[in-house]
Amino acid sequence: MAEPDEMRRLPLNAIRSFYLAAQAGRFRIAAELLGVTESAVSHQVKRLEQLLGAALFERQGREMHLTPVGSRYYASVRRSFGELLRATAEVAGSPDQARVTLTLPTSLAAFWLIPRLDALQRRHPGINLQLLTTNRKCDFARENIDLGIRYGHGSWPGFQSAPLLSEQFFPVATSTFLAKQKTSEPARLIRSARLIANGLHPGEWEEWCLAHGVVPPPMEQALVLESSELILQAALEGVGMAMGRRPIVDRLLASGQLIAPFGREAESLAGYYLVRIKGEAPTAAARKVERWLAEEAAAAAPVVSDRSRAAKSKRKS
Fold first, then answer.
1. How far apart are CA 49 and CA 39, in angstroms?
2. Rg of the chain's alpha carbons, rounded to an integer?
3. Are 283 and 146 in contact (CB under 8 A)?
4. Bridge pairing between strands 63-66 and 98-104
5. Any idea which architecture 4-89 has in CATH?
6. Which of 272, 270, 264 is nearest to 316 (CA)?
7. Same-fold call for 4-89 versus 167-268
8. Whole-angstrom Cα distance, residue 253 to residue 260?
9. Is-above-0.70 flag for pTM?
10. Each residue of 71-109: pLDDT tens digit?
11. Which top CATH class is 97-166+269-316?
């Protein structure tokens, strides 16, 4: 526990000025955010550098970069400010609700998580879950994010991860679209039907075909789209046959809106993982959300097992 004298000597204004300047990359922007002059921010940063006995910024003309010491200090300050902001937001929010911010890919939110949110509300009425749906890699500390679901192979610097959902991929289409085709034999159908390709997963049709002993089709005439939402919408409209990916496509298969004419057997090398910043203890509310997500995932689809990860590693090598 910090002593009272240590707390009084802690230059909070100088640390805040440094944090915003490092975040923005400009003293001017930090000054605008703080409502002070640029020289005031510069003075606070110099005061902090004198106290620490180390340069935090390297200044090259108008450009300003963190020194190695500054980068390490900024990482520590960012984590500390993130904790303070989360704690303040939790207390300052609704007195009977705890806020938890979760980031995840847009497609997984739309097709898997959002249909389940009512169950979370019934299970934990005291939790206010906020979703940040994006495919970019977020800065958890700067954006006050508690938890994330990331797509990949389970390893991200600075994060601890746990397997949540595995992914299988296979061709899907509407029954109406398939009924219009002249054949149902996989090799012939894939070569004759209009295919929908995912620009984020190049080579997925070739990978599926090779895994099933089918000659890969030419893709020059395929419709290439850049998101699972657009791909599934195109398939639902009967534009062509798409590569469906579990668990995103599960509800559409269950409702019969799409069907998988050749089965659902190909497992992706990647999957969805539940992540949070390494070394930071989650709030009690975030832990409840973690447990709920794990339970929902286990009920919906198999998780990425140690056995499947080993198989994937062997295939990649």
1. 15
2. 25
3. yes
4. unpaired
5. Orthogonal Bundle (1.10)
6. 270
7. no
8. 8
9. no
10. 989 888 888 887 777 676 666 555 556 889 999 999 899
11. alpha beta
Looking at domain 167-268, its CATH class is alpha beta
Other Cβ atoms less than 10 A from the Cβ of 284: the count is 12
- Which tens digit of pLDDT belongs to each residue from 173-232? 999 999 999 888 888 899 999 999 998 888 899 989 988 888 898 898 899 998 888 999
Q: What percent of the chain has pLDDT over 70?
A: 87
Q: How many other C-beta atoms can be found within 10 angstroms of the C-beta atom of residue 52?
A: 15
Nearest one of 64, 115, 255 to 172, comparing CA atoms: 255
Could you identify the residue written with the tokens 């890969």? 216
Give domain limits for the chain. Answer: 4-89, 97-166+269-316, 167-268
**Rounded CA separation 25/163 (Å):** 36
In three-state form (DSSP H/G/I as H, E/B as E, the rest C), the secondary structure along the chain is CCCHHHHHHCCHHHHHHHHHHHHHCCHHHHHHHHCCCHHHHHHHHHHHHHHHCCCCEEEECCEEEECHHHHHHHHHHHHHHHHHHHHHHHHHCCCCCEEEEEEECHHHHHHHHHHHHHHHHHHCCCEEEEEEECCCCCCCCCCCCCEEEEEECCCCCCEEEEEEEEEEEEEEECHHHHHCCCCCCHHHHHHHCCEEEECCCCCHHHHHHHHCCCCCCCCCCCEEECCHHHHHHHHHCCCCEEEEEECCCHHHHHCCCCECCCCCCCEEEEEEEEEEECCCCCCHHHHHHHHHHHHHHHHHCCCCCHHHHHHHHHHHC
